[in-house]
From TrEMBL:
Residues 7-245 form the NAD/GMP synthase domain. NCBIfam families: nadE, PRK13980.1. It catalyses: deamido-NAD(+) + NH4(+) + ATP = AMP + diphosphate + NAD(+) + H(+). Belongs to the NAD synthetase family. It comes from Thermococcus chitonophagus. This is NH(3)-dependent NAD(+) synthetase.
Length: 257
């Protein structure tokens, strides 16, 4: 993996948040490391009065204690908003078959609506928590947790987020947790992605950033080329999630310039 100057990277993120989000921010706090790291960096940049944390469980007591550990150790204002009644109302009103992934996407999009309701009414910015590993593999809900105004971690791989989390004092318990989207019981990122973040990041770095041929990556990492192809498939299949909606262009149809 690339070797980053972490102290300089932390300073750069803090500066970025200061520049982009001076009115204050709203962040969804799950109890996981990405949102914890984002919140810690936001407090460094803006001070605790300008950071509002929203804890939005669907399942009973879902990681609420870990999320509170984050907000209370930072001393930021927070609200707990249970989204079960909202998500269930969607499900009951739709009269379509929703498998667990589709229902999970409704949870992620419901959280997005709640974050923007607060940003709108308080004149604040929504800080997203996506990292580069998720972004490149499409491991997020389009317009759900993938939607935000600024995403300070989006150019950092998950393994780099862990390094930064440790350095800025995110509680060890949170750093050591298995990453999960928490959309259904027993879900883990690495289980659903079919690869560990450690190997995923090693492959993504070579495939996307260094544009190395697949066989060379497999040789260098001593893995079957199928592992690299698996990651390539995730990247290619999620291209649509990394851009705004497209339409046909009409430049060649202009009759009078
Ligand atoms: N070629 C194409 N061009 C343009 N749009 C295309 C498309 N193919 C699908 N689409 C659209 O994209 C939709 C599918 O994308 P999407 O709705 O996101 O749904 P999808 O990618 O199927 O599911 C989201 C994935 O992200 C994971 N997730 C979600 C939330 C949080 C986290 C986390 O880590 O915390 C992880 C979740 O577990 C699941 O694996 C399709 O229904 C369609 O509307
Ligand atoms: N229960 C929740 N309450 C508030 N926000 C949530 C909740 N679940 C998910 N989110 C939001 O969705 C984001 C995406 O979830 P994701 O699981 O990728 O990140 P994380 O939980 O912070 O870290 P990890 O990936 O290690 O679990 C979270 O960072 C958070 O902003
Ligand atoms: Mg999580």
């Amino acid at each position: 993996m690339r070797a980053l100057n972490y102290n300089a990277a932390i300073d750069r993120i803090v500066q970025f948040i200061k520049e982009k989000a001076s009115p204050g921010v709203v962040i969804g706090i799950s109890g996981g490391v990405d949102s914890a790291t984002t919140a810690y960096l936001a407090v460094k940049a803006l001070g605790k009065e300008k950071v509002l944390g929203l804890i939005m469980p669907y399942y009973e007591n879902q990681d609420v204690e870990d999320a509170k550990l984050v907000t209370e150790s930072l001393g930021i204002e927070y609200k707990i908003i249970n989204i079960k009644s909202i998500v269930d109302a969607f499900q009951n009103s739709l009269n379509i078959d929703l498998d667990r992934k589709s229902l999970g996407n409704i949870m992620a999009r419901t959280r997005m609506i709640i974050l923007y309701a607060h940003a709108n009414s308080l004149g604040r910015i929504v800080l997203g928590t996506s990292n580069r590993s998720e972004f490149l593999t499409g491991y997020f809900t389009k317009w759900g947790d993938g939607a935000s105004d600024y995403a300070p971690l989006i150019n950092l791989y998950k393994t780099e987020v862990w390094q930064i989390a440790k350095r800025i004092g995110v509680p060890e318990r949170i750093v050591k947790k298995k990453p999960t989207a928490g959309l259904w019981e027993g879900q883990t990122d690495e289980g659903e992605l079919g690869i560990s973040y450690k190997l995923l990041d090693e492959i993504l770095w070579r495939l996307v950033d260094l544009k190395m041929p697949k066989e060379e990556i497999a040789n260098e990492l001593s893995i079957p080329v199928e592992r690299v192809e698996h990651v390539e498939k995730l990247v290619k299949g999620s291209e649509h999630k990394r851009r705004l909606p497209q339409g046909p262009s009409f430049e060649d149809l202009i009759l009078e310039p």
